[in-house]
Predict the structure of Aminodeoxychorismate lyase.
Amino acid sequence: MHSVLAALTEHLFLRKFNVVTLVNGQFQDSLPVSDRGLQYGDGVWETILISSGKLILLDEHLKRLQWGCHSLKIISLDESALHQEIQLISKDVNYSILKIIITRGSGGRGYSAQGLHSPTRILSLHKPPETIDYYRNSGINIQYCTTQLSHNPQLSGFKTLNCLEQVLARSELGDDYQEGLVSDIDGNIIEGTMSNLFLIVGEQVITPLLTQCGIQGIMRAYIMSLLANENIELIERNISKQDINNADKIFFTNSVIGLWFVTKINGIEISADKEHHDDKIINTLQYNISKLEGNHQ
């Protein structure tokens, strides 16, 4: 009991000074240069919204984290310690972003992971962007990115520490753009630089097929379940630029922003007919996301 109270006291003290990072259960913000997360991007990560004191869709995030560890053959993750650290770092937090990184741990030079059975756990808290609610209400301006996603089904779906394609795509965005459309090497539009893509066409919702690349977002899965509950037809298929042009509505989702709808493409206003299309689907989805998150203010 004494150790728990001591850790909590230390946590509250450090939070006061904005040092809110745990590395393997210790409050610190550094790790050995030999860690394979740094050396090779050998690891996985999750971003979880804390809203109204709740870790939103925590179980779903942890399942994807486990999927990623299993796919990369990162073994011996101390899940009990991870759960304790999540509770410790998020205690008394009303509104924040929790980032969890799991690396294979430290090792010598070379790619071989033989004999490495001590993964590194890194948890950190971050202030949510102040513009989240503004863009939820006003909509966003998007552009096409030239950076393309390579195909690798073995790594598709979960979040690895190899994010250079997303970094390059994000770096293309001008100051007046909030998101970008990213295609794969075949020219199919896969996702945003940081979010999943949905189109509304008539009474149907369409989202890209993510079998070769792309992230199977936790909020994406939540949206898909909401659509099923509302008996709204959802189609997963390849999406082209022509599909973007023909869409009645376009929106992006992730665990932090919730849902952002599009009002401009390449700085050009969406046509009046499309902009004033029935917003029932988007309103329903936004209502359920707000209900899930609660009042974080």
